[in-house]
Amino acid sequence: MRRTVGALLAKDLAVELRTRESVPAMALFSVTTYVIFHFGLDRDRIDGDLASGVLWVTVLFAAILGVNRLFVAEHEQGGFDGFLLAPVDRTALLVAKALGLFCYLCVVEVVAVPAFVVLLLGPGPGQALPELVLVLAAANAGIAIVGTLVAALAIQTRARDLIVPLVALPLLVPVVLAAAEATTPLFLQEGAEALPARWLAVLGLYDLLFALIAYAVFDFLLED
Amino acid sequence: MSTALALVFFFAPLDADQGFVQKIFYVHVPMGIVALCGFVAGGIFAIMHLRSGDPRWDMRSYVAIHLAIVLAVGVLVTGSIWARASWGHWWVWDEPMLVSFLIVFLLYATYTPLRFSIEDKEKQARYASVFAIVAGAFVPLNFAAVRMAQNFVHPETLGTTTGGMPDKMLLTFFVALVGMTLLFITLWKFEMAAKHARFRLRALRRSLAGEDEFVPIGRSAAPGL
Predict the structure, then answer these.
(1) What is the percent of chain B where pLDDT is above 70?
(2) Residue B131 CB: number of other CB atoms within 10 A?
(3) Per residue in A88-141, pLDDT tens?
(4) Residue B89 has pLDDT above 90, yes or no
């Protein structure tokens, strides 16, 4: 199981490194979105709940781009058949894809969050960085799990690009909500406050629950 | 259901500050509860479908979710009317019930397009079931999350039954709830019967047409459903 996941993950990361299909587009998209928010809100600097909302909406939409592309190579080039022929646990594909998406999101945020601080955030990066990383990781895990599930669901449909955002966005509303609430005190103008543990707990619970659901239903998405 | 309507109009006392409009509550709240239960039931049927592989469970799940979507539209419309009458706005964002219901509705609104965009019948049933399970599990989770996010402004009619509602209103409400549940079940059964009849008819037609055009070999090849 672990070796299978490792092999699949290495394959995905190698493909992404060579083709550079998803991550650069996602990063570019998020920076563009900040510019759009700047003009849409007509504000030079934002802080508090507005800042955290802008950050999370941007991350979410950038993630949707990655989710859209997640299984395209498998679908178009027969990777599913190859995987199904191999005598390995099917859950390995779910784990590998979710980990891959998690890595993409982390790399995108390495670009997107500093860009956010430079372009829009009123108070400086400050001392709240460890807490912010914690929230980002928890939310990334949720987005990665749900995103993988939705991508696997949508890849067989004719209207893949439509189905992914339509299904994923409502499912991810609790993630955005909890993450935005959790990071609001970090972006306050008068200095960061303590991270509300309650919201982190909600994120963790959401991750756990959807990991279990995804584990339970993923096999049925691959049967052919 | 008609008993419930009679009670609503003649038995239940008028609300002190909302007056006649408050009566929409007896339609709106049971409808909402039944719609959510319908979504969850669709998820449970979908679990049965994936476990047994029997297409009839998929049909049950589909019909339940379909009806619940119709009820959900009713809930949103009556809820808006009620909100307009009692709070003065068509839509109130700081109301966890409204927001979470809207999210659930938006999610389930993609159920039909999802089914529609998968051509292979068997695959369509399986994917729709996966969606129904995920979404069915999402319903209570979403309500919990949204409720946590906002202050609770809804009159807690069920949580605090001792102080919330007078007995007469409570009785009417429960009759309305039972009536709505029965209505849902009846509609569900009716729709199932109609679907079965349509499939039988189609199968018969196909075998008849086959008889005209070809030598009748596949006469008994009608699909089981």
Answers:
(1) 70
(2) 28
(3) 888 888 899 999 999 999 999 999 988 888 888 877 656 677 888 888 999 999
(4) no
Distance between B203 CA and the closest CA of chain A, angstroms: 26
- Write the pLDDT tens digit of every residue in B138-195: 888 877 777 666 544 444 444 444 445 566 667 777 777 777 788 888 888 887 888 7
Domains in chain B: boundaries: 2-8+20-157+165-193
Say yes or no for a CB contact (<8 Å) between B134 and A163. Answer: no
Tell me: the pLDDT tens digits for A128-185?
778 888 889 999 999 999 999 999 888 888 777 888 888 899 889 888 888 888 888 8
Contact A164/B at CB under 8 A: no
Asked if the C-beta of A222 comes within 8 angstroms of chain B's C-beta atoms, the answer is no
Tell me how close the Cα of A222 comes to any Cα of chain B, in angstroms: 10
Q: In this structure, how many other beta carbons lie within 10 angstroms of the beta carbon of residue B53?
A: 12
Per-position DSSP letters for B75-120, written without gaps between them: HHHHHHHHHHHHHS-S--TT-HHHHHHHHHHHHHHTHHHHHHT--S
The reported pLDDT for the residue numbered A190 is 67
Q: Which residues contact A104 (CB under 8 A, 6 or more apart)?
A: A16, A22, A23, A26, A66
Write down the residue that tokens 């047994």 correspond to.
Answer: B52
Which tokens hold the place of A100? 């891959």
Check: CB of residue A177 under 8 Å from CB of residue A167: no
SS3 B157: coil
Q: Which two tokens stand for residue A125?
A: 């990066």
Residue B88 C-beta-side C-alpha neighbours within 13 Å:
0
Cα(A108)–Cα(A179) distance, rounded to whole angstroms?
17
**Spatial separation of the C-alpha atoms in residues A200 and A121, rounded to whole Å:** 22
Comparing C-alpha atoms, which of A29, A14, A145 is closest to residue A73?
A14
How many angstroms separate the CA of residue A18 from the nearest CA in chain B? 32
The residue of chain B nearest to residue A156, with distances taken between CA atoms, is B118
